[in-house]
Amino acid sequence: MQNIGITENLDASFVKRFNWNSEKTAWALLLILAVVTHLYMLGVRAMSHDESLHVLYSWKLYDGQGYQHQPMMHGPFRFHINALGYALFGVNDAVGRLPAAVAGIATVWLLWFFRSYLGRLGAFLAATMFAISPAILYYTRYIRDESFMLLFLVWLILMIFRYFDTREPKYLIVMMVPYALMFTSMEISYIFAGLFIGFFLLYALLDIARDAWSQDALKIPFFVALAASAVAAVYSFYRVTRGEVGVSETGAIIVFFLGVALLATALYLAWRGVGERLHTHPALDVVIWLLAIAAPLFSAFIIRMFGWDPQDYSQTGYIRSLGVFLVMLVAAGAVGALWGRVRWLIGAGVFYVIYILLFTTFFTNGQGIATGAIGSLGYWLAQQEVARGGQPLYYYLLTTPMYEFLPLFLTLGGIVAFITGRGWRFLIPKPEAEGKDQRSEIKDRVHGRRTISGLRTEIGDQRAEIGYVEDENAPLGGLRSPVSGLRSPVSNPQSSVSNPQSPISGLRSPVSNPQSPVSGLRSPTSNFQSLFTLFNIWWFLGAFGGLTWAGEKMPWLTVYIALPMTLMGGWWAGRVLERIEWGAWRKQGGLWLLLSLPVMIFALTTLAQSSPFQNVTIAGLSTTLQWLAALAMLLALAWLAVGWIRNLGRQRSGQTIFLALALALGLWTVRVSYMFNYIHFDDATELLVYAHATPDIKRAMNEIAEISERTVGGKQIKVAYDDDSTWPLEWYLREYPNRSFYGASPNRDALDAPVVLVGDKNEDKVKPYLGSRYVRYSYRLVWWPKQTYFGLTWQRIRDGLRDPQQRKIVWDVLWYRKYTQPLSEWDPVHRFSMYVRKDVVTSIWQYGAVAASGDITDTVAAVDPYEKGVRQVTSLRQWGGAEGEANGQFRSPRNVATAPDGSLYVADTGNHRIQQFDASGNFVRQWGGQGAGNGQFNEPWGVAVAPDGKFVYVCDTWNHRIQKFSAEGTFVKAWGANGVTDGQLGQQGVFWGPRAVAIDGQGRVYVTDTGNKRVQVFDADGSPVGQFGGAGLVDGALDEPVGLAIDKDGNIYLADTWNKRVQVFSKDFKYLRQWPVEGWPSQSVVNKPYLAVADTANGRRVYVTDPEYYRVLIFDDQGKFIALFGQYGNQANEMTLPTGIAVDAQGQLFVADPDSHRVILFPAVN
């Protein structure tokens, strides 16, 4: 018992010491929730494209490599705070996101201090919505600037309204800290600075205008000048941001300076009307501080307006930009110093110390001043022309209700309540006598006749006088409103808006005293709350409109719309809930009505989705019975609901409907937030997952780590990667000291690595260097959400709503994030491939199971069976090499043939001609030309010379015929026509894309009828002799036959391409034997291998080109592999796409290399 007493005493002491109550308990639980939701699974998701840039350059700063500001990556704050995080907690994905998460948690805590403006319950609800917001939670767990910007915006606003509330100069100075940090974070600061300055300037001038003026006649010109200056500002800003860099906006220049003159005129008229009182208005203090301190940072706007480029860092551009900056700095400094004197200079010092330290990285990057002060806004203005993402104007009308439906509903309701509840009444004119007294009182205070501490005491006395209550011990369920029923010594203490019981109008007006919160100081809390609510409305509409207007619309910018909605929504929800008399509400059936509403909605949904009375089958009767049951339930509940509504009355029924909607949307928000942040966080099924890394990133990196560990230990393996897979892989590859970056220009040295990574853009460049030595695994790198919402029209929307199938698709997307296309087949997506060298795969044979997460697209043997036969062979001579039409130049030559006298004939395919060279390699003649007439060609692929050298035969491929010429190129005869036999041995004399021709010792003409999967044989004059082959896999059947050669014994060697084998037939067309070819990897239109046969001192040799592995394979006539030569490139020992091949009497090899537009002569290789 004694121990229990001690515990109770400790508990009591704790409560007493910290004034603990249920409200603080609720906030503590909310903060714990925020900590958990922000830190849970923080490092699981792969770094996105943008994140990888941010964390890598932060790591470089931490690693001592320095940091240089680049406007493309926004401000420097994020990099410095991340580098600090690495120094404190180490380097990994979770720590990379930790500063953003901490900023999100801190923002939840900071909303505690908004209780005076939102109400206690309103502030708590706003913080709760902030904590569970799907978009905000996602991007406060994301290493971008949004999390920090949200914190700085909330901090800045709090300081502004604290200054309004207390008039203590310290708040103006402190607000420079978040203001500076905003500008060191992201260029969107310019938008919000403009929004805030515009609001407080407009409010100040309107508030002053409602005072008694010495000359009332000045008010109309004042309003005209003020409105005209606003129009001029909007026009000039639009022209500059939509204009071209380097083009002077003369109209904008004139209108801009006219607008400045009009604003100065409005201020002058106000000064004439109210005199020194103009200088006492706190809103103008805020405007001068915000505008004058940041004005030099808007220099890029002026520079752009005059047709110069703010991002021109040349000497001329730098001097020009510096001149504009200094002029604005001097002008703004003069205005600020005259207005605020010493304290303004202190505030400016705080701002620019922070700004300069971060942009120069503590004086290690002097250029950062220029890239920050001028380049940041200059880059942002340029991006409005680029309109990155190309999103439609209505983009945020999709993202906002899809994710932020709860605060959107509450915000729209709050705006209606504020307007219909006349929450703006504090702006109406006040009695002249009272205004004079109040202005005199303020003037005395501002000019020092009353001290700040005395003012603070008097404000506190006035709060007590008007009944301001801040009951720390009140439970959340019964919080006393700090604004309801306030007494006012200058107005009717019972004053309220019309219909104070309306559940829609905000129940009771937050305005009990229409006096100015600035000039009156009689009811600061009431009017400050009304001003804060009006500010939130302005902020919400300005953010939504500004971001919609901006050229670049991105999903992460949705949080800037969500933030003012959480504040506005929290205020209105708190106001409504505080007005509910819970005991009476329960007694009158409110709880039952609340519970019945979702059941009735479910019943209505069942009725709408069912089709009863269709048939008398068991299924049909079951559907009908379900429909009848739902109808009965709906009618019964509706009858009961009518009674409950009558008991509750109009106000409480409205409150119940509000509760039902808010609870339903709240639960849905929790579900969407959970699914988005912890289930679909890296799936492109979420509209806000944009240009994001796929889950394959970490899978691929885990596999590389395992390969490295099991082959060389640690992360010492060499990994080559290109510029198309750099981000986000660059972040993860920082741990591999032997990484090799080859960009968009692969070379042999860089690609000599066990693991090669390459993006889609460069894969065709890389493949030639890798040949058949690697196994390929395909992965998804970055993906984007479906953009089927592009081109939306009202007609499309109507048609979609009327179509049941479309409605179901939309519902599946909204509720389940389920699309008709599975993620495995997702498009749009950017892919990359990982190539692992086969000897590495062989050494860790278990790796095949490890790599199962990737798409294994290369299934060739792990070991290249030809690797030991590689020979280095250098060419003797080359013809061509430069694409052209001149004699001796080629355009994609596909084949070659030699004559008994040593002459060389080349099928110059792309030029639709044949070129002849003598035995010394000199050009002799050419004939042909594109067409279908005799002697004309349409891409000739095959050429052969009769054994006696008198005739030349050409496969006129896409004219589907054979043409016969004399050795001098004179047309002799043509035969053939286009025809399809469906792979059968059908009609002779018709072809489908013949690719090769060969002549035997008897003068018979053999033609590979490639498309018809057969070989046709003719006599020398084109009369059919026979055919063999036909589509299939069995011995003697063919699939894409191309190359053709005949030995001295009359045996026929054939490249059966897609069956990946060489088949040999006897001179009477009987199948003899075959052997496999470990090559010919694809079925592309360029992978067309050819053959040549020659008798050498070492025996008969069969030469086979392997186009896509850039080599020539050499076998004996039984299929035994002898050697290979060739590799990718344009050098003397390299080829880019070897196809046609021929052997001369000395055993020398002529190879057609169409991709390099040349013919290459190699020495004999036996």
Beta strand %: 5-15%
> Helical content, roughly?
40-55%
* Cα Rg: 40 Å
Structural class: alpha+beta
Number of strands: 34
Average predicted local confidence, pLDDT: 86
Discrete helix count = 34
Q: For the terminal residues, how far apart are their CA atoms? A: 104 Å
Largest sheet: 7 strands, mixed
Overall morphology: elongated
| Low-confidence spans | 1-7, 432-525, 846-854, 858-862
Notes on the protein architecture:
Residues 1-7, 432-525, 846-854 and 858-862 have low confidence and may be disordered. The N and C termini lie far apart (104 Å). Helix content is 47%, strand content 14%. The protein contains 34 helices and 34 strands. Helix 5 packs antiparallel against helix 7 (120-132), helix 5 (93-110) runs parallel beside helix 9 and helix 26 (590-609) crosses helix 27. With 1166 residues, the chain is an alpha+beta fold. Strands 1, 2, 3, 4, 5, 6 and 7 form a seven-stranded mixed sheet that branches. It has a five-stranded mixed sheet with strand order 8-31-30-29-28, with no helix packed on it.
